[in-house]
Design brief:
The relative contact order is 0.18. This protein has a six-stranded mixed β-sheet. With about 500 residues, the protein is of the alpha+beta class. The chain is globular, with a radius of gyration of 23 Å. Helix content is about 30%, strand content about 25%. Helix 1 runs antiparallel to helix 10.
């Protein structure tokens, strides 16, 4: 109860802090005109890229987000796959794909994109990005047919090549010069101050016409209240991934746009070490969390409860697995030998059932969720210490965690979430989780081209997630953006927040 009181107190404090910065000025949207020379200042709480080289880490994700990087395919706001740098992607047979490129696309160095550049870019991804091979095998033979046509031939059937061509691991790039990858996007990165600011400028020779902004600066401000106040004071123009409780406290002159996002919030468990090396404990954890209560307490009831690895918004048929069943959770813990003592807490061989749950301030609702989970698990006799850290990536990459809050974007391809979180070598499989049944099913999923059979395989994977959970799926939050009314135009939120910046996005005068 004390923790819940702290949680609600924290929410109230956030609302008060936001209200204190209220501005009374409201620009008249009906008289605004676009300013093509403007600088859009975005506030974010999540990590900026570690460098401007997309051949390192997950920097390709950031470059897609801020309009610098592009892939051969992409997802539309209606979550449909469509060609982007590619003009077409055609299956010649079960293992051979022909890619035709749009003509007239320019890299940031002024050179034209040719098929040989795509081949070199793919080779770079396979060599430098560990997760790339989970989507397009590294032994794939890429052959240049002519300047604008190439073929990909895999050693076995691959059913998901068009989806994989939209993956951030395959941002089309040339080798970095002075630490900056040569890309094709509407904006080109200029500078990066680590954990502080990313700056991009309009690319004058963008293949799809002039982008609406002269400059974009992305400022990392970990504290959600500080970001909200910066928006109200005019120091920022746009906030994304605004938590519902912060959005609720913003004044009337701030425009809010909310769409059902494809993001998944979850808890990552270190299944290699105690206490989560015991499958029974992990199963109990999956059943011990009241997700509907989390939604009410931390997301104002918005978004959707998650019961398996796919958000409901991506349209993949779900197997309901992780539901609230405290009685069954208690029974599983009893079976695992973690018994309740006279103090109401569980222990085994003199060791308390306790763990540290890491979180980070970049997504404000995650720490609120962690605090609520702390209170829920205490009723089952589990002690949880919540530890909010500024750089969650550093903690995870060192493998120095028992459990951590995390969030990923998902796509309509059932292969994607499995490929980035659950299989060997996956970019976000920080605990080194290995389940032979999932590895085998994932290999089948990659090879299968029939959509109905792919969904059937995805359901088998979800069943295995139920039997052997390593992640506790919590909720799919709404994607909320905030900006001063009338200040920007052309902004169409994409449920997949990797596509934040569009060519049409402009500042108004």
């Amino acid at each position: 109860m004390r923790r819940l009181t702290q949680l609600f107190g924290l929410i109230l404090m956030i609302q008060i802090l936001v209200a204190c910065g209220t501005s009374s000025e409201t620009p008249d949207a009906t008289t605004s005109t676009s300013n093509s020379n403007g600088e859009l200042r975005i506030g974010t709480g999540i990590n900026l890229p570690t460098s401007l080289d997309v051949a390192q880490g997950s920097n390709g994700y950031n470059m897609l987000t801020y309009g610098a990087g592009e892939t051969l395919m992409r997802f539309t706001p209606s979550n449909q796959l469509e060609p982007w740098l590619a003009e077409s992607v055609t299956a010649l047979d079960s293992s051979t794909w022909q890619i035709k490129l749009r003509q007239g696309i320019r890299f940031h160095d002024g050179s034209e994109l040719k098929a040989s550049d795509v081949l070199n870019s793919f080779n770079s991804s396979w060599q430098n990005l560990s997760g790339a091979k989970n989507f397009i095998p590294a032994d794939t033979k890429a052959s240049v047919v002519d300047d604008y046509t190439l073929t990909l031939t895999t050693s076995q059937a691959e059913g998901s090549i068009p989806y994989s061509l939209a993956n951030w691991n395959f941002v089309i790039h040339k080798p970095a010069v002075n630490g900056i990858s040569i890309l094709t996007g509407m904006y080109h990165p200029i500078s990066l101050e680590k954990d502080q600011e990313l700056v991009l400028e309009r690319f004058a020779n963008y293949w799809d016409g002039q982008a609406g902004l002269q400059k974009i600066s992305v400022k990392k401000i970990p504290d959600a209240n500080a970001r909200a106040l910066a928006l109200q004071s005019g120091d920022l123009d746009l906030l994304t991934n605004v938590s519902p409780d912060v959005a609720r406290g913003l004044p009337a002159d701030i425009e809010l746009q909310s769409v059902a996002g494809t993001r998944m919030h979850y808890v990552m468990l270190d299944s290699a070490h105690p206490p989560f090396d015991d499958r029974l404990v992990r199963q109990a954890m999956a059943l011990a969390i009241d997700r509907q209560a989390l939604l009410q307490a931390t997301l104002d009831g918005q978004g959707a409860v998650a019961t398996n690895l796919y958000p409901a918004t991506v349209g993949i048929e779900l197997v309901e697995a992780q539901i609230f069943d405290p009685a069954q959770a208690a029974s599983l813990l009893d079976q695992a030998g973690w018994v309740v003592g006279s103090d109401g807490m569980r222990s085994k061989n003199g060791q308390p059932l306790a763990f540290t749950l890491h979180s980070y301030p970049g997504r404000a609702e995650l720490t609120l969720m962690a605090i609520a989970i702390q209170a829920q698990l205490q009723t089952l006799g589990i002690k949880v210490e919540v530890n909010e850290v500024a750089d969650i990536g550093e903690v995870l990459e060192k493998g120095n965690f028992q459990a951590s809050m995390y969030s990923i974007g998902a796509s309509g391809d059932p292969q994607y979430t499995v490929g980035i979180t659950l299989v060997e070598g996956a970019a976000y499989n920080y605990a080194g989780y290995n389940n032979p049944a999932i590895e085998s099913a994932f290999a089948e999923l990659r090879a299968e081209q029939d959509p109905s059979k792919r969904i059937a395989i995805a359901k088998r994977i979800q069943t295995e997630v139920k039997n052997d959970p390593t992640n506790l799926y919590l909720a799919s939050p709404p994607l909320i953006s905030a900006y001063r009314k009338g200040s920007i135009s052309g902004y169409v939120p994409n449920p997949n927040d990797v596509y934040l910046i569009t060519k049409e996005l402009k500042l108004n005068q």
